[in-house]
Amino acid sequence: MATMATINELQPPYKVGYFVGSLSTESVNRTLSRALLRLAPSDLVFTEIPIGELPLYNRDFDGDFPPVARAYKALIAEQDALLFVTPEYNRSIPGALKNAIDWASRPYGENVIARKATAVIGASPGQIGTAVAQQQLRSVLSFLQAPQMNAPEAYIWMRPGLIEADGTVTDPGTEEFLRGFMNAFFEYIERVLTVVPSAS
Questions:
Q1: Which of 83, 120, 144, 148 has a CA between 20 and 30 Å from the CA of residue 183?
Q2: Residue 186: exposed, middle, or buried by beta-carbon count in 10 A (0-12, 13-18, 19+)?
Q3: 102 in Cβ contact with 137 (< 8 Å)
Q4: Nearest Cα to 147, choosing from 88, 105, 197?
Q5: How far does Cα 188 stand from its chain's mean position?
Q6: What is the pLDDT of residues 140-163, one digit of tens each?
Q7: Angle, alpha carbons 135-16-83 (nearest 5°)
Q8: DSSP strand pairing (195-197 vs 5-7)
Q9: Helix, strand and coil in the chain, % to nearest 5
Q10: Cα–Cα distance list, 164 to 35, 116, 159, 180, 190 (Å)
C-alpha cells in the first residue's frame, strides 16, 4: 500500500536544537554557531543540545539509560529540527558527536533523530572547511532517516578575525552567505513540517 501524506498544522516559531561537534570552549565551530543564531530568522528558536557529559555509548545501556542520556534524548525529541555545526578531526566526524548521535538512535526503535529536518555546516582553519566530515555526517543522518537540507552547502574557511567571539561576522560576503543559509534552513524546515509521511 502506498504511503499517504498528512498535512502538519504546526506553525512557526519552530524549535531548532543545535549541536556543536567540538567540546572546546574556544572552538571555531562554537563561534560559528553564535553567528548562525544571530543571523537566523526570528521564527527559529534555538536550544543547544549538549553532548559533553554523555558517557561512551554501550549496548549494555539499552535496557536502562543513565539519567543524562534520557534527558538528552528528551531534549532532542522536543525539537522540530536539528542543526549540526561540526569540525573535522582526521578527515572524520568528531568522536563526541558520533557518540551523541549513537545515543540518540538507540535502543532500536527509539531513534529521536528520525524525520526531523536537519542541516549540516562546519568551519575549519583550513580551506577544506570540514567538507569530508560533513559528507560522513550526512551518510549517518541518511541511515537514521533524517531529512537533510542538501543545498546550500556550507564549508566555512575560518580565517582569523572572520567572526568575532560574540558571533559578529566581519566580512559582508560571509555574513550574507550565512544569513542565506539560515533563511534556506527555515524554508526547508517549513517544507518538511508541512508535508510529512503518515505514521500509518
A1: 144
A2: buried
A3: no
A4: 197
A5: 13
A6: 999 999 999 999 999 999 999 999
A7: 15
A8: antiparallel
A9: 35, 20, 45
A10: 9, 31, 11, 19, 30
What number of residues does the chain have? 200
Query: H-helix or E-strand containing 163?
Result: none
Q: Residues 133-139: what's their mean pLDDT?
A: 97
CB 55 within 8 A of CB 66: yes
For CA atoms 33, 34, 36, 41, give the dihedral sign. positive
pLDDT at 1: 47
DSSP 84-137: EE---BTTB--HHHHHHHHHHH-STT--SSTT-EEEEEEEESSTTTTHHHHHHH
What tens digit of pLDDT does each residue of 87-116 get?
999 999 999 999 999 999 999 999 999 999
Going by C-alpha positions, the residue among 195, 185, 197, 192 that lies closest to residue 36 is 185
CB contact at 8 A, 104 and 79: no
Please report the pLDDT score of residue 11 as a whole number. Answer: 85
Contacts of 62-68 with CB under 8 Å at 24 or more apart are 62/106, 62/107, 62/108, 63/107, 65/103
